Amino acid sequence: MASDAEALAVALAEARAGRAEGGIPIGAALVVDGTVLAVGRNRRVQDGSPILHGETDCLANAGRLPASVYGRATMVTTLSPCDMCTGAILLYGIPRVVIGENRTFYGGEDLLRSRGVEVVVLDDPACVTLMNDFIAAEPTLWNEDIGEE
């Protein structure tokens, strides 16, 4: 059974792997019934994709699942989910989201909460440091990822 901290460690490992590949360091894990079912990382740079954020890559890696599985899932992500990832979480009815940090970026948390999703923010120092270091080193790439100039 993966605790929130254990699942976040898995997502953080994905984020670090993505950064080592030259990508954006955001990772995710889909946990169902205490088991990590799938992982993913932001692969926009690596795959030249406009939509492969950590959460969407994780959902793609999980494959097609019945609604009953999503309904028991927790999406664990190193960073507050953007509007696109928030929409995917809502679309599939994932009832719980665990966020490593939301200091460097505050995404769709309020929308998730307004739709009944339990949102847990761990404020993990390793996640904060990883994103602060990345944003300082690659501000143009970061702004591209979040749709800003």
Give structural notes:
The protein is α/β, with parallel strands linked by helices and 149 residues long. It has a single domain (21-146), classed as Cytidine Deaminase, domain 2, CATH 3.40.140. Helices cover 46% and strands 20% of the residues. The protein is built from eight helices and five strands. It has helices at residues 4-20, 44-47, 54-62, 67-70, 83-91, 109-114, 125-137, 139-145, and strands at 27-32, 35-41, 73-79, 96-101, 118-121. Strands 2-1-3-4-5 form a five-stranded mixed sheet. Helix 7 (125-137) crosses helix 8. It is globular, with a radius of gyration of 14 Å. 40% of the residues are buried. The model has no long low-confidence stretch (mean pLDDT 97).
By DSSP, the count of extended strands is 5
Order of helices and strands: HEEHHHEHEHEHH
What radius of gyration results from the CA coordinates?
Answer: 14 Å
What is the arithmetic mean of pLDDT?
A: 97
CATH homologous superfamily grouping: Cytidine Deaminase, domain 2
Q: How would the global form be characterised? A: globular
**CATH top level assignment:** Alpha Beta
Q: What summary fits the major beta sheet?
A: 5 strands, mixed
What's the architecture, going by CATH? 3-Layer(aba) Sandwich
Neighbour order of strands in the largest sheet = 2-1-3-4-5
Low-confidence regions: none
